[in-house]
Write a structure and sequence with these properties.
Elements: E1 16-25, E2 30-35, E3 38-45, E4 62-71, E5 74-82, E6 100-104, E7 107-111, E8 163-176, E9 180-187, E10 190-197, H1 203-213, E11 220-229, E12 242-253, H2 270-275, H3 277-280, H4 284-306, E13 310-311, E14 329-331, E15 339-341, H5 347-355, E16 360-368, E17 380-389, H6 393-412, E18 421-423, H7 424-431, E19 444-446, H8 457-460, E20 464-470, H9 478-488, E21 499-503, E22 509-511, H10 519-529, E23 540-547, H11 549-566, E24 576-580, E25 585-588, E26 593-596, H12 609-614, E27 629-634, E28 637-644, H13 649-658, H14 663-677, E29 684-690, H15 691-699, H16 729-734
Parallel strand pairs: 3-5, 10-12, 13-16, 18-24
Antiparallel strand pairs: 1-2, 1-4, 2-3, 4-5, 6-7, 8-9, 8-11, 9-10, 11-12, 14-15, 16-17, 17-29, 19-20, 20-23, 21-22, 21-23, 24-27, 25-26, 27-28, 28-29
Helix pairs in contact: 4-6, 4-15, 13-14
Amino acid sequence: CGGGCGSGGPPTIGSVLVGTVKSYSAVKGFGFLVHPDISQDIFFQDIGIAMELRTSDLAGTAMSFELIRAADGKAQARALKPVPAGMGTSTPPSPGTMAMGMMGGGGCCGTHPGMMGKGMGMTGMGMGMGMGMGMGMGMMMMMGGKGMMPGMMPGMMPGKGKPVVRNHGVSGHRKSYALVWRVDMRDRYGITQVIFPKQGADEAGLKRYSESVNLGREFVVKVTGKVVERSNKNKQRDTGDIEVVADSLDVLNASQTPPFKIEDATDAQEETRMKYRYLDIRRNPLKEALLLRNKVTRIVRDHLNDLQFCEIETPVLIKSTPEGARDFVVPSRMNPGQFYALPQSPQTFKQLLMVGGMDRYFQIVKCFRDEELRADRQPEFTQIDCEMSFVSQEDILNVFEHMIKKLFKEVIGHEFPSFPRMEYSEAMDRFGIDKPDTRFDMELVDITGCSKGFSFKIFDDAEIVLGMCCKGLGEWSSKKIKDLEKKATGQEVGATAMVWMKYDKDGSFDCSAKKFFTETQYKAWVEKANVLPGGCVPGDLLVIIAGPKLKTQEAMGKFRHLMGTELGLRSKGFNALWVVNFPMLEWDDEAERFTAKHHPFTSPWTEDIEQMTSLDKKDQRLNDVRANAYDMVINGVEVGGGSIRIHNRELQAKVFEVLGFTKEEAQEQFGFLMGAFDYGAPPHGGLAFGLDRLCTILGGKTSIRDYIAFPKNNMGRDTMINSPSEITPVQLAELSIATAVKAKEASPAAPAPSGDYPAEKGVLRTS
C-alpha cells in the first residue's frame, strides 16, 4: 500500500497516498492537502497536474500525492493527479475480491477505491482508450519500485494475489506447455504475461484454456485475473517478476494478420509502416517518440505559463504573400476566384498581438510550406512560436536559453553550460555555415595567399581558396578519396571542383594537382592549417575548394558536416550556441535586387538604421547593414531563430522599398501591419523553435517523421488516407475552379535525401 493507506503504520517518505485538497491557488500553483494519517496540513506544488485543471477550483477534491517530507512539524508533497469521484483512502480490498470494469472508448475501465500504493503495491484501477480501431489500451506508469502492469492507472500496481482487470492486445508471443498456455499481452505501458492453466481447471477454466490457444496476433482482449509471482522471472521487462493467472477472458475484437510484425525491430519498409501507421504506433520506438513529444510540449507550456506568457491562437486561413516558400492555397467558395493561404508562420499576427498589448505571447502552432521534402522537412510542421514586448536581444536570448536548458535537463537529463555567442561572420569564416556543429574541429583555413600564381587556373581565378584538414584520412585509398571528390562536387555540396593533398605518415606529400605545386607549397598549406585546433599532421588529408567567397564557404560548410557524419564525429553529445548579427540583406544577381536574409520585418541594429534609410535600394553598401537577428543552433541544426522587429512605419516602408516592393504593393500586402504601427506599436521581438526538430535531437534520431503521429512521405502524400486526392466536378464548380491537369496515379516516392533545412526561410520565416 506504500504506507498510510489503512496499513496501520505511519506514512513513509516516498509513499503514494490519496488526500483531500484543503485549499489551492491556481495563480501561485500550490496549496494544502489533508490526510487522516498525517496530523498537519501538507503543502503541495501542482507538478504533474494537467494545465486545464490549474484554472479549476480543486478545493475539496481528492488528489493523489507523493510524500516528500514529514518532519520538524512540516509536511510536503508532490501532487500527482486528481482522483475520480469515489476514490479515497479506504483500505485495500481483501484477496479474492474483484475490481469491476466497464467498457469505455473501445477499452475498459475497472476501478476500486482502496487499491493504491507504490512499487509492487498498486491500485486496481484500469482505464481504456480507443486507438482508432477499437483497441483497448490500459494506462500505467511506474512510481518507484520495479513492476509496471499494462492496463493500470499511473502510479498504481497490484500486489501479489490482488485481482486485476486488463485490456489490451495480444502481442503474438505465445508459449505452449503441456498444462498451461502463456500469452504475452501488450498495451501502451508494456508487456505482461497471462497464463491459462489446464491442469486442475474446472469446466470454465478448460474453456478459457481452449479460447486462449486460439488467440491470434493483435487480438484485443479483456482479461480478469490475479497477480502472482513468476517462478522464472524475466529481468528484461518491468513486469517480469509477476504474471496474471486468468479468471476470465473476453475477446473484444479479432485481428487480421498484420502486414508486418508489431515488434521494436522490424524490417518493414517505411512506406508500408506509413500506410498502416496506426499499427506502427503500437511499436515501442514510435510510441516512445510520441510520448517524448508530449513531454516536450507539456514542459514548454508549463514553463512559459509560469513566465506569464499567454497562449493565443492565430488564424489558419490568411492572405498569401508574394515571396518566400510557396503557399498552400485554399479557394474561397463565397468569394469566387479568391484564395486563402495556409500560414508559413504566424509572423504578422503575433506582431499585431504586441500592438494590442499582449506583451508575452506563445503558441504551439501548425505551419505549412509547399516545397521539396526530405528527412527534416514536412509540408506541415509545428513551431513553438513566441513574442515579447519591450525587450532587447539580450532579454530574448536569456529567456529562451533558460527554457531550452530546462527542457534538455527534464527530458533527457542533459545539463548545458551557458550558450556561447558567435557572430555570423565568424561562423562563416571558421565553419562555412551559419549553423555550425561545434562538437568537432575540422575548421576552415584560408590559403588564398599561398595558392595563387602557380598557373593553376581554378585557384588563380578564385576569390578565395579554402582548405579543411580531415584527420586520419591521409591513409585512405585513391578510390575512397575519389568518392570524396564526387560528394564534394555533387548536388548536396555543390563545389565546382575539389583538390586534395595527402600528408603521408613518413612526411611525404601527394596531391591531385601535383603538376602545379611543389613541396614548398604543400608545407605552406600545412603551416596555415597548423594554426587551427588539431592542425594538419602526418596521416591527414587536406581538402581544398576554391571559387566565389560565399559560395565556396557554403560548399565547404556542407562538406564539413557531411564528413563529420561519415567519420562518426556527429553522433554523440550536445553542443549549443547562438549565432547573432546576420546580414540584413542578400544581393540576388538574377533579380538584380536585395532580398531579406531573414524576413522583411527584422529590424537593423540601431547603429545601422541611418545607412539603411539613406542609401539607394541597389547600393552595395547595404550588404554591410546588420540585422538584429539570432539563431539557436544545437549540433549543427538550427532549432530556432528570430529577431527584434521593426515597429516604425517609416522604417518598415523603407525596407519594403529596398526589397523591390512598390508603395502600392507594400500597401496591398502589408498595409494592415503598417497601419497598426500608426497607433503606438511597442518595441518587440521574438523567435520560434521547430518542435519536430527539437524532438528529433532530444530523441537521438535523424528524421522528424519519427516524431509526428501521421506524417507525409517525401512526395507530400499521406498513403494511409490516400491524400491529396481529386475532388468531384461538382466541388470544383462550387469553387469556380477548372483544372488543366489530367487525373493520373501518383508516382512512387523516392527515398528522402538527408540534409539540413533552416527553420526559418523566406519572407515569412518561422520566427
